[in-house]
Amino acid sequence: MEHNVKKASKKSAISITLFISAIVVAILGVVLLVVNIYLYRTSVNQAVAQGYAVATVRKAYVPSQLIPGIFQPIALYGGVALILLAVGKISDKVSKCLAVLTEKEICDDVTYENCEDQVDQDVVNEENIETTNPEEILDETQKNID
Question: What's the per-residue H, E or C state across 63-109?
Answer without folding.
Answer: HHHHHHHHHHHHHHHHHHHHHHHHHHHHHHHHHHHHHHHHHHHHHHH
